[in-house]
Amino acid sequence: MDFQVVVLAGGFSKKLVPLVSKEVPKALLPVANRPVLSYVLDLLEQSNLKDLIVVVEGSDAAFRVGGWISAAYLDRLHVDVAPVPEDIGTAGALRAISHHLTARDILVVSGDLVSDVPPGAVAAAHRRHDAVVTATLCSNPVSGPADSGSSGAKDKTKKPGRNIIGLDPSRQFLLHIAAGAELEKDLRVQKSILRAVGEMELRADLMDAHLYAIKRSVLLEVLDQKETFQSIKKDVLPYLVRSQLKSEVLSNGAPQVEENGNDKVNSQSKRITQSQILANASNRSFHELYAFGPDGSASARRTHKCCVYIANNNKYCARLNSIQAFSDINRDVTGEANHLSGYSFSAHNNLIHPSAELGSKTTVGPHCLLGEGSQMGDKCSVKRSVIGRHCRIGSSVKIVNSVVMDHVTIGDGCSVQGSVVCSNVQLQERVTLKDCQVGASYVVTAGSEYRGESLAKKEK
Amino acid sequence: MQFDDKSRVEKAKKRAVVNQTEVRNRVELFRHLPQYEHGTQLPDLESKFFRNDPMHRAVYKVGLQYLAGDITGGNARCIAMLQAFSEAIRDYTTPAEKTLTRDLTAKIGSYVSFLIECRPLSISMGNAIRFLKNRIAKLPLTLSESEAKTSLCLDIDRFINEKIILADRVIVRHASTKIRDGDVLLTYGSSCVVEMLLSHALELGKKFHVVIVDSRPKLEGQSLLRRLVANGLNCTYTHLNAVSYIMHEVTRVFLGASSILSNGTVYSRVGTAAVAMVANAFSVPVLICCEAYKFHERVQLDSICFNELGDPQAVAKVSGRGDVNYLGSLGNKDNLQLLNLMYDATPSEYISMIVTDYGMIPPTSVPVIVREYCRDQLWI
């Protein structure tokens, strides 16, 4: 259907240190024992989008991601992994691969999105209105209890990214978008847009899902003209939304000048009649009304449309952009949104791999995940947690509300609460962790107690 | 297709692209017409966007616009559909070992079934499709693929130009001779030809007054009213319930039509028949402005055997007034059925004259035009 899909898988994110490392780029962070990129790829595969371009920052990370994708999706998807330089921003990444883009519209998906919003619906809304960009919005996911998350003092990105979104009365067009740092200052609304529409609805409860459908010609033109644009969300999208009634990007609606003579007048007027029949018969959006001017004269002002698709309330949508979000998504995917994980849950509402061994008197509560080859000692208790593959967990261990990745060794008597423990970590006896993050291959000495800290191996 | 035949409905559902859920409470008399739940069609079609067999994007866009109600009106729908087909033909390539004519006809057929699922075709669209299929079948075999495609696109452009645009101009020129100074003209709903006629008559400098009669639930007359008032016409706006009170002031009635059938019956927006009958009772002449490509050889005696059912909930709601919800919980009762008909048939005895691009004819001359000029759907 003339759409090309680009997945922006990021690279090494500073916000997610110490979870990410050189061996585990952000795209391969496990959520419910599956790399987070697999959720996006599965969503696209279900919608029959089989040709993808995955953009990864940093050649090392690109190599790892490419290796994993070709192993996991050998015959199911055709993926081109394109490495781009680091810290280049989402717009910069698109600029770098612009020569690969050939289709009429581009679907840009963020690689850290965990969602079941159908990309087809976004594409259909985009085509129906012949829009220049269509954004996907959904209601904010409920985030975990704020005080048990990463400690407030250290983590400034605690609040989910707040957006202020301006919509038209029919909730199809995007009139205003402001996010993040701009919210601290005053909110500036374009008067021309407000006058043309008449009524604007401002919403603060919607989250940008980072799934955009953009017209290719416009995207390339904007990226070419505005060299400084680094991020789609912060630069490109607000620019397009602001300039929708004073469009400089397209030769949109400007009447073509014919060659000469009588033909010119006749075919002009025929085309005008034809477009008038179509225009009078259809529901005109405020763009057309604005372009045609108050006296109905031919369009002197060029406009383009920015549409929006608001996902249904029953769709799940979350982005992995902070440690708090990581814990939340893990909890959701094993809990309410467990249809996303692709596993089938047992009668106790948890998933224990058949090869996992449980000691005597060990309880595994609902909404838990136990990976293959893991061994648990006696008298353990696991509640609302995800445990990876090949873990060795001793006796009398309590794991509550946490994520434990693969190949972890936990000694006896430990207590892990609200924490994230990465791969290859060794927790010796009687360690207590509360709201901590332990980086890969770290060894926590016996008997230590940590509260709200981030432990990682020193890089050599 | 008759929708009260269960086995055929099942077969059609299996082939269907758009997933339609049928309304539970259906009016028995109209069981042979399709009636679907209006809220679910658009989201379902959207979610299957990438999954369908490669439907050309222009056709898909037009289908979505029909489904969402973005385009209404016989001429506009026909033009939009033909432009989408033109784009699809331009992007078409013949697969190996297949002939252009057969494969392209099959493809157009699949597009047409998709459009039918989005919204049942109007008669003007049906005629245009038959014309296009006829042109494809008549393509000489010696033409190369690109020549054939350009020839088809030219044919489509010519059809739109001659049968719609130029036809409208001719109709407007003829009909404006029937408007005299001091006339009070009445029109119903929103017809693009009638609107062009009124604007043209105003440009010619005639002095007249327009009465626009409108009806729920679509309230199409309001957009017509806005445009005419913006042009500087003196207008009166009223609803269908008041038509007999205003008719004694009216000197002529101009109506548009979706189609004119062979027995002179005018098939048009629901409410047109009422307006025509009231005008007849007051001895006011009724003139129908209709392009010739909308004529059809079918004969219809009532509005029941062939019609279109709209969204029944639209009858119960008032747009812009969410508090007016008198039916409320009654909507789901078994012994209450909501009916929203879109078209009706006006018998020919209430029509004084039909203005077409072939001239001004009485309703009894419609089968003559169909017979003489519609040979093989070529509309020469």
Structural commentary:
By secondary structure, chain A is α/β, with parallel strands linked by helices. Chain A has two domains: 227 residues, Spore Coat Polysaccharide Biosynthesis Protein SpsA, Chain A (Alpha-Beta Complex), CATH 3.90.550; 112 residues, 3 Solenoid (UDP N-Acetylglucosamine Acyltransferase, domain 1), CATH 2.160.10. Chain A contains ten helices and 33 strands. In chain A, the strands form seven sheets. In chain A, strands 1, 4, 5, 6, 8, 12, 13 and 14 form an eight-stranded mixed β-sheet that branches. Chain A has a seven-stranded parallel β-sheet with strand order 16-18-21-24-27-30-33. Chain A has a six-stranded parallel β-sheet with strand order 17-20-23-26-29-32, with no helix packed on it. About 7% of the residues of chain A have low confidence. The radius of gyration of chain B is 22 Å and the shape is globular. Chain B has a seven-stranded mixed β-sheet with strand order 3-2-1-4-7-9-10, with helices on both faces. In chain B, strands 5-6-8 form a three-stranded antiparallel β-sheet, covered by helices on one side. In chain B, helix 3 packs parallel to helix 5. Chain B is an alpha/beta fold and 380 residues long. Chain B contains 13 helices and ten strands. Chain B has two domains: 161 residues, Four Helix Bundle (Hemerythrin (Met), subunit A); 167 residues, Translation initiation factor eif-2b, domain 2 (Rossmann fold, 3-Layer(aba) Sandwich). Chain B starts with 5 loop residues before the first helix and ends in a 7-residue tail after the last helix. In chain B, strand 2, helix 9 and strand 3 form a beta-alpha-beta unit. The longest helix of chain B has 32 residues.
